[in-house]
Structure formats: C-alpha cells, structure tokens
Give the backbone structure.
Amino acid sequence: MLLMAVLTAALLILPAFADTYILSVAILILYFAYLGQAWNVMMGFCGQLSLGHSLYVGVGAYVSAALFVHFGIQPWLGVWAAVLACMAAGAAIGVLAFRFGIGGVYFALLTIAFAEFTRIGFDHLRWVGGSGGFFLHVAQREFNDVLALRGSPAMFYYVMLVATVAAFVFCAWLLHTRIGYYWQAIREDPEAAQALGINTFRYKMLAIVISSGMSAFGGVFFAFYYNNLFPEQIFSMSRSIEIILGPIIGGIGTLFGPILGAAVLTVLAEGITELMAAFGWEIPGVKQVFYGACLLAVIVFVPRGIWPALARCLGLESRGKGPRDG
C-alpha cells in the first residue's frame, strides 16, 4: 500500500508537467489498468477465464451514452443504469455457465459468444446508430464540468486516476475478506473448495457480477472521453484481448500486476507507433504482433508476470504481494 501511495502522489502532480500527448497516454494507461483490475477479480482471484469482457465495456458505454443523448441523463446518473445492465448480463452468463457446470475453455468460449451476439445486435440497433456509429454531442466549454464529464484532458485524467485508485483499494480489501479467501480456494481447486462447504456457485456468481459491474464504468468513461461508439470497435475480440493482456503480463492475481502491465504495454505500443510515424512506415497489424511478442516473452522468462519477479528483486514481496505472490 505504501508503494501505491507514493505512485498516486506522483500521478497527482503529473498534469502540471505533462503536455497533452503525455496526458493522453497516461489516461490510456489508467484506463487499461482499471479494466485489468476489473477482469482480475474474475480470473486472477476466482479463476474464471473470460475472453469476452468487451461485452461489459460496450454495454456500459452504450447504456450511458443513450441515456445522455436521448433523455439528457447525466453520466454520473447513467453510470448506475450501466452498472446494473452489465451486472444483469454477467449474472445471466454466470447462471448459464455455473449452474450447468460449464467451466474452463468452454466458459471462455461462452463469454466470447455473448460478446459477439451483442456486437451483432448493436450493429442492427438503429436507436443507437447501428453499424454507422453513435455520437455524443461535444459541448465546447471553457471550464471543466465533472458532472457532465465535459472538459479538458486533465479532468478526464483525474477522473480515471480516482477510479483506478478506488479499484485498487477495493480489490485489496476484497482479498482480505472471507469472499477473497473463498475465491482463492475456488481458483486453486473448485472440487476441494466445495468439499469444504464453500458454495462455489454463489461465489463464482459474486465474482462475475462484481467484475462486470466494475467494467461498466470503464465503458461509461470510454463513451464520454471519445464521444463516439462503434459496435465493431468496442465489442471486438481485440478489445477484450487489450483488457486482459495487462494483468497477464503484469501478473494475474496480483494487485499491482494490472497497473504495471498496462503501463508497459501502453508505453511500448505508443513508442512503436511514434517510431513508425517517424520513418513513414505503415505496417498493418504491427501492434498485434508486438502484443504477441510481449506475451511470449513473459511466458518464457517470467511466467507468473512482471510484478512478482520485480517484487522479489526489490524485496517488496511482503508489502505488495497479491494472492499468487506468497
């Protein structure tokens, strides 16, 4: 927690020294760190592999954006509807999967299928623009309006910073409750956990509902930060991969893993983009190749992720460890 406090203090003063580009990169890092933390609740803590988490991001984004555009409902009110919608979607998937014993790779495929069904549905839903996209009106303001999520990049940066810190603290608290211990038992051996009297169905459902609800806020932020939504973009499989790569590379099941993984991937990916622009190169799919190379390197050299290895080197295991660090 001390490391998180020092890091947060440094991030608080970043906008005073960073230009707009650096600030936009920092927002991306925080955005993927937050979503990685949300996904980590489900996979890292409870051991349920979701490869369709873009479903919750997309539903959260579209619900809040539609309420804002069609009914004038401000995002901080719309976010509650978005969270409830995503929790309902997560609960539906959970009941279908866990009640009938669908787990492992089959559960992962089920999450992909639901994300794809939803993408196709929104592609044909004219009320929110269909495949042509859904656009939010951008009001030109000379001041930051936090309630309407309208303002400068610095305002969005601080909103995402607060959300990421809150997600970190919430997940740290969860891990030291009975729920967190039950999740870890289910992750390590579901049959043994059930034999000990743990209601595995209930706690798996709790994991997917919490994870989906947290992801909804990421979707709301995306909608009001970018002001446009396309089903092919926000529900795509590549979006889900971007969400899960941070925790995998940083360290699944750890608290700092999603943050470190998001920072490494975003900074290096932006570096590659700038390098290609400097040389005038246009290579389709270069970022995907880069992500694959990073994942391969982590699997070969630090299979538990970068953070556990770094924590051991710095002697921080006792202070910064997650459930898989000790």
Q: What stands out?
A: Residues 318-323 have pLDDT under 50 and may be disordered.
